[in-house]
């Protein structure tokens, strides 16, 4: 699903957090967003998912402008899946119930139908054997894969990832990135905030560098990592590579 962001501006009180953001995410493309802490990456992702309001500009998901009317916005939002740094699973529900909850409550599916879909995606993230467990019984990497499966259950046309591996121990990062790489290879449209540069090089069509609320550089990964044109991007890369 194509996403069009045009002239986006957002303030938290008097703090100008997003400044004149223009970004097109074509259907089937993969975009990685990086940049220093506080540069507005999460805020941008949250605006696209309708979790934050904004004061200027527009966001259109699949041609539907967010905010035009509540019903259209709800439908557009249903097309986006979001994965957070902190997993955000419901601790009192099993893995399977975490995945079936929205299918049953929102889409009014039968238990049987919802569980079939949930198990399909739990297999996709290579974790079907954990279906009856509770989140606290799983490792961080497993919990994050459940969070990805849960998002996929609603058949999103755009997947948003906000630093999905930042809270994980190093040995678990790869199992989550592997799932993201296979999603990309199946053609999922993806917008990923991540500092995993190996992942960016492997799957991203474009890398975006944000600083102080602005997109200051957008380039193909080979160009961005080879020779970023912006001084702040260069300094940033020197720190993380
Ligand atoms: P990033 O994800 O790039 O680290 P964020 O989008 O989380 O950056 O935050 C950008 C800036 O906005 C930061 O300076 C942060 O402190 C500020 N900020 C984030 N959320 C809020 C909020 N709810 N109210 C006020 N300021 C906020
Ligand atoms: Mg953030």
- Count of individual helical segments: 9
Named once each, the bound ligands are: adenosine-5'-diphosphate, magnesium ion
Spatial strand sequence of the major β-sheet: 6-7-8-3-9-10
Q: How would you sum up the major sheet? A: 6 strands, mixed
CATH architecture: 3-Layer(aba) Sandwich
Rg = 18 Å
Task: State mean pLDDT (0 to 100 scale).
Answer: 94
**Helical residue percent band:** 25-40%
Could you name the CATH class? Alpha Beta
Classify the fold: give the CATH topology: Rossmann fold
Pfam family, one: ABC_tran
GO molecular function: ABC-type amino acid transporter activity; ATP binding; ATP hydrolysis activity
Protein name: Amino acid ABC transporter ATP-binding protein
Family: Belongs to the ABC transporter superfamily.
Can you walk through the features of this model?
This protein is an alpha/beta fold and 241 residues long. It has a single domain (3-239), classed as 3-Layer(aba) Sandwich (Rossmann fold). It is 39% helix and 24% strand. It contains 9 helices and 10 strands. It has helices spanning 41-48, 70-78, 95-105, 111-124, 140-152, 170-185, 197-203, 221-226, 231-240; strands at 3-12, 15-25, 30-34, 56-61, 64-65, 80-83, 158-162, 190-193, 206-211, 214-219. The strands form 2 sheets. The chain has a 6-stranded mixed sheet, with helices on both faces. Helix 3 crosses helix 4 (111-124) and helix 5 (140-152) runs parallel beside helix 6. The chain is globular and about 55 Å long. The two termini are 32 Å apart. The mean pLDDT is 94. Bound molecules: adenosine-5'-diphosphate and magnesium ion. Residues 12, 15, 17, 35, 37-43 line the site of adenosine-5'-diphosphate. Adenosine-5'-diphosphate is lined by residues 12, 15, 17, 35, 37-43. It holds the Pfam family ABC_tran. One of its GO terms (molecular function) is ATP binding. Belongs to the ABC transporter superfamily. Residues 3-237 form the ABC transporter domain. Keywords: ATP-binding, Nucleotide-binding, Transport.
């Amino acid at each position: 699903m194509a996403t069009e962001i045009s002239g986006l501006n957002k303030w938290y009180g008097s703090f100008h957090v997003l400044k004149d953001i223009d970004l097109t995410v074509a259907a089937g493309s993969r975009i990685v967003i990086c940049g220093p802490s506080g540069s507005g990456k999460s805020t941008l992702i949250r605006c696209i998912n309708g979790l934050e309001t904004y004061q200027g500009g527009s966001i259109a998901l699949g041609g539907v402008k967010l905010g035009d009317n509540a019903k259209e916005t709800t439908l557009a939002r249903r097309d986006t899946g979001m994965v957070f740094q902190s997993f955000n699973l419901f601790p009192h529900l099993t893995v399977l119930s975490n995945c079936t909850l929205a299918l049953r409550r929102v889409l009014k599916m039968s238990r049987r139908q919802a569980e079939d879909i949930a198990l399909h995606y739990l297999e996709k993230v290579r974790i079907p054997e954990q279906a009856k467990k509770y989140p606290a019984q799983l490792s961080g990497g497993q919990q994050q894969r459940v969070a990805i499966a849960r998002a996929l259950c609603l058949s999103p046309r755009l997947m948003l990832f906000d630093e999905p591996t930042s809270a994980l121990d190093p040995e678990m990062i790869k199992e989550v990135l592997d799932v993201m790489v296979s999603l990309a290879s199946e053609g999922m449209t993806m917008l990923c905030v991540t500092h995993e540069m190996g992942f960016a090089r492997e799957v991203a069509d474009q890398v975006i560098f944000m600083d102080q609320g602005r997109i200051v550089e957008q380039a193909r990964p080979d160009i961005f990592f080879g020779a970023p044109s912006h001084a702040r991007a260069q300094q940033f890369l020197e720190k993380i590579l």
